Amino acid sequence: MRKLIESTFVSLDGIIDDTRPSxxxxxxxxxxxxxxxxxxxxxxxxxxxxxADAMLLGRVTYEGxxxxxxxxxxxxxxxxxxxxxxxxxxxxxETTWNATLIKGDVAEEVARLKEQPGNHIxxxxxxxxxxxxxxxxxxxxxxxxxxxxxxxxxKHLFEGAGFDTTHLxxxxxxxxxxGIVVHVYVPK
Length: 188
What we know:
Blueprint: E1 4-11, E2 15-17, H1 29-32, H2 39-50, E3 52-58, H3 59-69, H4 75-82, E4 85-88, E5 99-101, H5 106-115, E6 120-124, H6 129-135, E7 141-147, E8 155-156, E9 168-175, E10 181-187
Parallel strand pairs: 1-6, 1-7, 3-4, 3-6, 4-5
Antiparallel strand pairs: 2-8, 7-10, 9-10
C-alpha cells in the first residue's frame, strides 16, 4: 500500500498561509519562508519528492503550484511538472499541469489511490482537504517544516478543521543550518 505524506510549511506562531482575501500578504509562505530556502531545504524537498510518484493537492495549493512551477525547468522543477497530480476541489471543472480532478467521494478516491501500486503520494500544504483526510485516517506521515519566523497574522495550521483531537507520534526530526526544523509525525 502506498503511503500518503503531507508536507507543510509552518511559522513558529502556527501560520501556514494568508487569510485570503486579506491584506496580510506577509502571511504567504513564499514571503516569510524564502529567506530560509537554502541547499538543506532544497535537498530535503528533493529527497521527499523523489520518494513519491504522485501528488495530491487541494485547489488552492494546486493553483499556486501550477502558476509557480509550470514555467520552471531544472531537475526539481521537471520532477514537479512531470509527476501526476490528483486535485480535490468542489469548484474546479477542469485541470491542466498534468493533473486529474478527483470526482466523487474524496476519501474513497484517496483510499483507492493508496491501494494502487506505486511509490508514495505527496501532499503539499494544509487546508480544507485535510479535514477529510484526517477524519478518515488517510495521512500516514506529516512533515511539518517549522520556520524560525513569527508572522503575526494569517491562517493557522488546521484552523477550523472541525475534527476530533488527533494524537501523533514524533518519528523523526531534521534540523537545517538556516533554523528550519522538520518534525516528522505518524499516527499513534
